[in-house]
Amino acid sequence: MQVEREAIKEIVKLAVEESNSTLPPDGRLQVSASTLVTGDGGVLTSLGVISLILAIEEKVNETFSIQVMLFDESLIADPKGPFRTIGALVDHVHAVVQKA
C-alpha cells in the first residue's frame, strides 16, 4: 500500500498527543523526530510504549482500513530500534504500512 510518510507522521503525532494526555506535564513526549521514547533518556515506561504502539495501530486501521502489527519483542530491546525516537517510530510505521 502506498502511503505518504507525512500521513504516518500525522498518525504518530495524534497518538503521541493522546498518550501525553495521560502523562504528567514533565513526562510528556515532544513531537519531534529526535525525541527519545525508550531507553536512556526516554520518557515512556514499557507500558507507555505499548499503549502508544496500540494507539498507532488503531489509528492506522481507522485511517487506511488495514491492520498492522508494529510490535515485535525483539525490536524493543534494540537500543537503536524503531521505538527509540519519534523519527525512528515514524519510519518503522511507514515501512510496515508500505508492506501491508
State the share of residues found in helices, binned by percent.
Answer: 40-55%
The class by helix and strand makeup works out as mainly alpha
| Rg on CA atoms, Å | 12 Å
Contiguous helical run count:
4
Give the topology, please.
Elements: H1 5-20, H2 46-64, H3 73-76, H4 86-99
Please outline what is shown here.
The chain is an all-alpha fold and 100 residues long.
Structure characterization notes:
- The protein has four helices and no strands.
- It is mainly α.
- α1 packs across α4.
- It is globular.
Note the main attributes of this structure.
100 residues; 4 helices; mainly alpha; 0% strand
